[in-house]
Amino acid sequence: MLEQLVAVDTSHGHETDALALVAERLRGAGLSPQVLESGPGRGNLVVRLRGDGSKRPLLLLANADVVPVEGQPWTVPPFKLTEKDGWLYGRGVNDNKGHAAIFTALVLELARERAHLRRDVILALTADEETGSAAGAAWVVKNHPELVDAEIVLTGGGDTRLAPGGDKAEQVGLGVAEKTFQSYRISVRGPGGHSSMPSPASDIVPRLARALVKVAEVRFTAHALAAARTQLEVEAKGAAPAVGAAVRKLLAGQALAPAEDEALAADPERNALLRTTCVTTMLKGSPQDNVLPTSATATTNCRVMPDETPAGVRERLAAAIGDPAVTVEPASDVSSGPAMEPDRAFEKLYRDVAARHFPGAVVLPTMLPSMTDARFFRLKGARAYNVVDTPFTEEESSSNHVAHGPDERRPVRWLAPTVAFLRDLTRSLAM
Fold first, then answer.
1. CA dist 29 → 23, 49, 111, 114, 126 (Å)
2. What is the pLDDT of residue 354?
3. Quick check: pTM over 0.85?
4. pLDDT(401) > 80
5. Greatest alpha-carbon span in the chain
6. Residue 76: which CATH number?
7. How far apart are the C-alpha atoms of 243 and 264, rounded to whole Å?
8. Domain limit, last residue, from 292, 310, 330
9. Is the pLDDT confidence value at 402 over 90?
10. Is 419 exposed, middle or buried (0-12, 13-18, 19+ CB in 10 A)?
11. Which of 277, 303, 330 is the last residue of a domain?
12. Region 170-180: what's the mean pLDDT?
């Protein structure tokens, strides 16, 4: 099933084509999946396996879209599942077609067993998660809330860390919070015209460039969230001495000295857990080299801490730029759910399952520096958790091969333990 999903390029839509293959398998098991299109080709699959209703439903959630591969130096075909040197390669094997295949397989197994379930088990495979979810989970929750109403939601994103060497899991993440994804469009307008006759008024690209340098120099205040405290305590132990000291100081509620802040900012992983970050990712100017642009625009992507607001971040960027001719406007409309305290019964179950499948590993409630579709369900009051993801060593997880980069891959030998963990967790919740 993973091979079939990877083979369909869903980096620019076309989720319906991929989900048709899943729907066919589900119908073969006697289920009645619905593929709901928010737009042409933007399919969202929902199917329900009925329980006895003694407990409220469980939702298994994954997205069927992936990020583009254009311009990336892949060494294997990105839309063909390839096994090589102990790795499975392909766009989406980690983010997030791996979970889509696993969750579908679990629902198929329960259906074929005719298992007695205390809860309805709902499978939802959504579109558009990578570009804001407006055509995916956000649309489903708004237009078909009854289909995905659940008490507990499981989705990917729970960071699973392997010890050096990759033979043993040492940390199992349980995501309970995530940063808000918010992009801003930073623009300067000019009169345009012929490039042979520039004027001061047409010099808008350098003006934008100066603004972007100022944006790059913005550093938001580092601080520790309660939801990430245990995670940060562990991260401090594994960090370089200067970074570990900075993290421990923040955990103690103390402000960092400039040198300590510099050390933290140089560690991308820990830095992302402790402050809002912004980085410019896209630029657009004239459509042709002999035409003066009428607008020069950049897209700056920010990941906002759960206790800060996108509006406040926009104000901070505009103040740093300090040029009234440069506008800073939201380029995306993305919301984030609140940080959660894990339900004690759920957390105990999660720890028990982890002990069976990853003995000796520490279970950590975590905050994701990225975003997932879990946020839409947290906003509705569901207990939405980011659960076990592909296990990697710290060195592997910091490479560009984990997700969104070229040669996205997952270790073959850890596929079966990941499936076994999610199977045990799902069945323990549902049966």
1. 10, 11, 6, 10, 21
2. 97
3. yes
4. no
5. 77
6. 3.40.630.10
7. 5
8. 330
9. no
10. middle
11. 330
12. 91
Give a three-class secondary structure readout of 364-400.
Answer: EEEEECCCCCHHHHHHCCCEEEEEECCCEEHHHHCCC
What's the domain count of the chain? Answer: 2
Structure tokens at 209: 């460039």
Domain that holds residue 307: 181-330
CATH number of the domain residue 242 falls in? 3.30.70.360
| Same domain flag for 386 and 318 | no
Q: Would you say 414 and 163 are in contact if contact means Cβ atoms under 8 Å apart?
A: no
Q: Are residues 203 and 123 in the same domain?
A: no
Q: Is the peptide bond before 96 cis (omega within 30 degrees of 0)?
A: yes
Q: Pick from 391, 409, 394: which is nearest to 173 by CA?
A: 391
If asked whether residues 97 and 164 sit together in one domain, one would say yes
pLDDT at 335: 65
pLDDT digits (tens, 9 = 90+) for 404-428: 999 999 999 999 999 999 999 999 9
Task: Supply φ then ψ for residue 373, to 5 degrees.
Answer: -70, -5
Q: Which of residues 400 and 256 earns the better pLDDT score?
A: 256
Please report, for residues 23, 113, 145, 296, 363, the alpha-carbon distance to residue 343 in angstroms, rounded to integers and kept in the order given: 33, 29, 23, 49, 14
- Do 37 and 132 sit in the same domain of this protein? yes
Same domain, 231 and 318: yes
